[in-house]
Amino acid sequence: MRIGVISDTHGMLRPEVFEVFEGVDHILHAGDIGPPDIITELEAIAPVTAVHGNTDGFDIRANIPDVARVQLDGFDIVVTHGDQLGRRPTPAALHQEYPDADIIIFGHTHRPLLETVDVVVTVMNPGGAGARRFDLPASVGIIELEPGIPPRGRLVPLTGMDEE
């Protein structure tokens, strides 16, 4: 199973996302979505599990939770924006908050991160996919799942360091 991971779109869905996510089986959105039509556009690619972030308005918060749990290909996955853990949530803090998860997806910081915690837990922040912030390239993530094999993840830049 191939999963597209995205966060912090803030109302901007870059065309490159459709290229990178071509053929994914599921999409995880870790919040700060923007208007609800972002989810509709992603659902045209694959089923979406999404959470709201700290900048999402009432229209999103009324229909989308702050934490989602989903099981895909036998892996227990938690999706959260991460803002409930402070300004800069860490993989260790997320693992402590969600100790039963095999995979933890978060956003909020706009900083791409892929780390293994406690030997077996994969933690990914795909970075910000919307307008660039903090002089970081826009990015998303891909996770490949196969029962009995540790998840394989990678971060995919959507822009260069000097592109908007």
Task: State the main characteristics.
alpha/beta, single chain, Purple Acid Phosphatase, chain A, domain 2, globular, 33% strand, five-stranded mixed β-sheet, 164 residues
- Radius of gyration, CA atoms, in whole angstroms: 14 Å
Computed structural class: alpha/beta
Q: For the record, give the distance between the C-alpha atoms at the N and C termini, rounded to a whole number.
A: 31 Å
- β-strand number: 10
| Stretches with pLDDT under 50, minimum 5 residues | none
Number of contiguous helices: 4
Per CATH, the class reads Alpha Beta
Mean pLDDT equals 91
**What share of residues are in beta strands?**
25-35%
H-E string: EHEHEHEEHEEEEE
Explained architecture:
The protein is an alpha/beta fold and about 160 residues long. The chain has one domain: Purple Acid Phosphatase, chain A, domain 2. The chain contains 4 helices and 10 strands; from the N terminus they run βαβαβαββαβββββ. The strands form 2 sheets. Strands 3-2-1-9-10 form a 5-stranded mixed beta sheet, with helices on one face. Strands 4-5-6-8-7 form a 5-stranded mixed beta sheet, with helices on one face. Strand 5, helix 4 and strand 6 form a beta-alpha-beta unit. The longest helix has 7 residues. It is globular. It starts with a strand and ends in a 7-residue tail after the last strand.
